[in-house]
Amino acid sequence: REAYEFLRQTENHLQMREYAQTHTLPPEGPALDIVARSLGFADGAAFRVRYDAVTQAVRESFDRVFGTNGT
User: Fold this and answer.
1) What's the rounded Cα separation, in Å, for the pair 44 and 36?
2) If you compute the radius of gyration of the chain from its CA atoms, what whole number of angstroms results?
3) Which of 4, 23, 29, 58 is 20 to 30 A away from residue 64, measured at CA?
4) pTM of the model
5) pLDDT of res. 22
6) Distances (CA, A) of 7 to 3, 12, 67
7) Residue 26 burial (CB < 10 Å; 0-12/13-18/19+)?
8) What is the average per-residue pLDDT within 33-53?
């Protein structure tokens, strides 16, 4: 549940920033820093560490349940 809430909050902040439906993180730099700070992170690098850890955990859970092994 924590991962879902984190990813949904990230998605919502991206969409507010773009004023459009989007699921794409901005590249490293000022744009990512803005999104990261809006989510309570110090900068884009700190956000990226958390984002990568959450998405990896979700991917591993998905693979365990559905047996996809990342494919």
Assistant:
1) 5
2) 13
3) 23
4) 0.74
5) 72
6) 6, 9, 22
7) middle
8) 96
Residue 33: which of 25, 18, 43 has the closest Cα? 43
**The pair of three-digit structure tokens given for residue 39, joined into one six-digit string:** 């989510």
Q: How many CB atoms lie within 10 A of CB 6?
A: 17
Q: Of how many residues is the chain composed?
A: 71
State the residue for tokens 């949904």: 8
Q: Give helix 2-18 / helix 44-66 axis angle, nearest 10°.
A: 130
Which 3-state string (H, E, C) describes the chain?
A: CHHHHHHHHHHHHHHHHHCCCCCCCCCCCHHHHHHHHHCCCCCHHHHHHHHHHHHHHHHHHHHHHHCCCCC
Q: Which two tokens stand for residue 22?
A: 């989007």
Q: How far apart are CA 45 and CA 62, in angstroms?
A: 26
Residue found under tokens 């859970």: 61
Place of tokens 């993180």: 25
